[in-house]
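Title: Comparing notes on inverse folding

I've been comparing how different people in this forum approach sequence design from structure. To keep things fair, I'm posting one structure and asking everyone to reply with a full sequence. Here's the target:
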């Protein structure tokens, strides 16, 4: 269950330009699953709402929660100044995660773009650690970056083969993660993805054309992450014949959705 706690900063490092790796000691790790996020509070009096940041790693034994985020404004800039021993208020875990059952015995493709890369690291770890009958037969990882600052790439390689796409062509496929699928003839059954909206739209279309299941994390569209700003409404298919749900809030009903259920 979600809770608000004061978490202690274990460490913070810079992974790439504007990309930070923050490790916190907190019991939020207990029931956190890949695809979920936390709300991190600032001391900034002009905004009392937390900033949503996706979970990149969970180490239950050490009570360590790892957040890899991009500095995009005042809140995240304040987080980037946190150092060992500081305390920060964190609410979580929030939202729903990726459905891992779907991948049992199949080939899973993990696709991340930009700051959508980090949440897939914990997913890669968990998928490879599932009991044999629940585990995917094969995992392929395709990550898209702006340039050759391929943060977390070596960590993904511990779990499966990694394919890279870059916007500027400095490494791997020159283009999008979908260009990489085509260029490398990567095939699979289930896609797990997180990234910018145009990429998710492309993946939704690709999955439909190739008869694949796809789970999309729409976390990029969130602002407050706690149901307070209504900035994250997305149109959904009627998923329940009785309640006729046509709208969902990404932060409370997502951020992960079955691609078939959302209109993006
Ligand atoms: Fe604010 Fe969903 S992100 S209501």
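Reply #1:
Here's my take.
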């Amino acid at each position: 269950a979600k809770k608000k706690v004061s978490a202690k900063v274990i460490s913070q490092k810079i992974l790439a330009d504007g990309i930070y790796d923050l490790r916190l000691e907190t019991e939020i790790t207990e029931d956190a699953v890949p695809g979920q996020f936390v709300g991190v509070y600032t001391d900034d009096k002009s905004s009392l709402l937390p900033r949503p940041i996706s979970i990149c790693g969970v180490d239950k034994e050490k009570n360590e929660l790892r957040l890899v985020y991009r500095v995009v404004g005042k809140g995240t800039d304040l987080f980037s100044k946190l150092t060992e021993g500081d305390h920060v208020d964190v609410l979580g875990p929030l939202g729903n995660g990726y459905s891992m059952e779907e991948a049992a015995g199949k080939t899973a493709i993990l696709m991340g773009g930009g700051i959508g890369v980090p949440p897939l690291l914990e997913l890669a770890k968990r998928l490879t650690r599932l009991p044999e009958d629940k585990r995917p037969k094969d995992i392929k990882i395709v990550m898209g970056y702006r340039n050759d600052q391929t943060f977390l790439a070596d960590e993904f390689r511990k779990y499966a083969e990694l394919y890279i796409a870059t916007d500027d062509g400095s490494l791997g496929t020159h283009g999008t993660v979908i260009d990489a699928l085509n260029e490398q003839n990567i095939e699979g059954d289930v896609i797990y993805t997180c990234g910018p909206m145009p990429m998710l739209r492309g993946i939704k279309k690709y999955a439909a054309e190739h008869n694949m299941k796809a789970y999309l994390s729409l976390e990029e569209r969130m602002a407050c992450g706690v149901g307070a700003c209504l900035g994250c409404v997305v149109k959904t298919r009627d998923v329940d014949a009785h309640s006729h749900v046509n709208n969902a809030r990404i932060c409370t009903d997502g951020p992960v959705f079955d691609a078939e259920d959302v209109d993006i």
